Amino acid sequence: MTTATTSAPTATGGPKKRAVGVRKDMTAADIAATGLRDRWYPILPSRMVRPGESKKVTRLSVDWVLFRDPRGTVHMLEDRCPHRSAPLSVGQHLGDRLACKYHGVQVDGSGTVVSVPGMPGCALEGKQATVSLQVVEAADTIFAFVPLTRDSEPTPFVLPDRLTDEAVSWFPNFAEWAGPWRFYMDNVLDPMHGAFLHRDSHSMFGGDTSARFRIRETDRGFFFEKTDQVGVNFDWVEYVRGSMDYVDLEIPYAPNAGPGGVFGIVGMATPIDADNSAIFHWRTRRVAGWEREVWRFLYRTRLEARHWEVLEQDREVLEALAADADHEEHLYQHDLGVSRIRRIYRADAKKQAAILAGAPV
Amino acid sequence: MPEKAAHYLAPDQTHPEPISPYETKLSGSIMEVFGRGTHDLPGLIAGLNELGLHAPDGQAWNEHNFRAEMRRLGD
Ligand code: FES
Ligand SMILES: [Fe+2]
């Protein structure tokens, strides 16, 4: 066949586009490395942006500035002045706006230039010239919708089930890891590491060190679970893709953690850049009445430290992995979950790259 | 990795203040009683009293002062 399939994809799919906050073309590999767009991500714990405070963060390899206005609302702008691109985060927080340090241009929470002090009446005034993301604060955390292109419509914000359930009590946990975000997803979709890496932990000392796994599809993702053991160790994980991607899992508590349901975890990773990740966990338990009160006290005084030790074991492995660790591996049956999640993300990245290239999708 | 030094890694995110020796003792005792398989409130309170631990007012633990103390320290 001699069809023209090698011609530029823009020929049929409309104009080429740039990803929001990115000023160069991105391939599927670039997107996979720095994070998939068009979804909600946890950005930072709410407590880290106090009233009157602004904070610079890098997420998906783009620099952003968060600031809380006098009404308590958090805004998230690209950290880049519309005039000559100085970072707004080094400027002044003026309540409902930021003033750039370089020449004083003022930008409000919607990214609109509200004042150009050096040249009043300048055409830049009133222009929405800085990227502003849609932000929601929930579960003690600042979330934002990271769009692929300027035309992307934010999807409705929906928290993971466990965090909206009144019967579930939770504590958030935040950490920054020097490893790529995709290694976090590989790690949580590999429950078998619990019986080895976390063998000496407070919660994962029991159960078999061999197992067979299966994938169980759901209408919102899939379960990856042991076929021969449940309720003993890290025996299953659910991957959910809704308005945000997250994992949900349960690990039994030892008797000394007291009465109440199992220990549930909701986990998410937000790429900082290709080599670093912002890791969000909510440690949860279905508990009521006095059992809830005691669990919360024990969590603060004892359990948080134990959970932290376990999480540090994960971090150490992830940070030790070579950047190309997911090439030339020898996967076996336990790695079905890893293969599946990689396939999903590869397909997503390809699709998003095609949208940027103007190809029909 | 130059950025690594700046990474946020905080083991104690729910209690910025250090845990007091009193809280350490109390939480350790609660886990000790739970560890024996006692998972009901009267059993827990009896267990704490048997360990010779006193409520903040110097009295023995009862359901009322115990739950009040958990609420005070837990949230
Ligand atoms: S670069 Fe910000 S005011 Fe000029
Ligand atoms: Fe782990």
Offer a few descriptive terms:
heterodimer; A: 361 residues; alpha+beta; 7-stranded antiparallel β-sheet; 4-stranded antiparallel β-sheet; 6 helices; 18 strands; 21% helix; disordered N terminus; B: 75 residues; mainly alpha; 3 helices; elongated; binds FE2/S2 (inorganic) cluster; binds fe (ii) ion
Description of the structure:
Residues 1-12 of chain A have low confidence and may be disordered. In chain A, helix 2 crosses helix 6 and helix 4 (181-188) packs antiparallel against helix 6 (336-357). Chain A contains 6 helices and 18 strands. In chain A, the strands form 4 sheets. A 7-stranded antiparallel β-sheet of chain A has the order 12-18-17-16-15-14-13. A 4-stranded antiparallel β-sheet of chain A has the order 2-3-4-9, with no helix packed on it. By secondary structure, chain A is an alpha+beta fold. With 75 residues, chain B is an all-alpha fold. In chain B, 49% of the residues lie in helices and 0% in strands. Chain B contains 3 helices and no strands. In chain B, helix 1 packs across helix 2. Chain A binds chain B through residues 45, 171-178, 254-259, 275-276, 290, 293-302, 304-305, 308, 315, and chain B through 1, 3-4, 7-15, 19, 23-24, 26-28, 30-32, 34-37, 39-41, 44, 63, 66-67, 70-71, 73-75. Bound molecules: FE2/S2 (inorganic) cluster and fe (ii) ion (FE2).
Give the mean pLDDT of chain A. Answer: 93
Number of helices of chain B: 3
- What share of the residues of chain B does DSSP label as strand, in percent? under 5%
- From the N-terminal CA to the C-terminal CA of chain B, the straight-line distance is 38 Å
- Give a short account of the largest sheet of chain B: none
Largest interface: A-B, 32 and 37 residues
**Rg over C-alpha atoms of chain B, rounded to the nearest angstrom:** 17 Å
Helix proportion range of chain B: 40-55%
Give the terminus-to-terminus CA distance of chain A: 23 Å
Shape of chain B: elongated
What's the quaternary structure here? heterodimer
How many strands appear in the DSSP assignment of chain B?
0
Radius of gyration of chain A: 23 Å
The helix count of chain A comes to 6
Name the structural class of chain A: alpha+beta
Strand content of chain A: 25-35%
- Uncertain stretches of 5 or more adjacent residues of chain A: 1-12
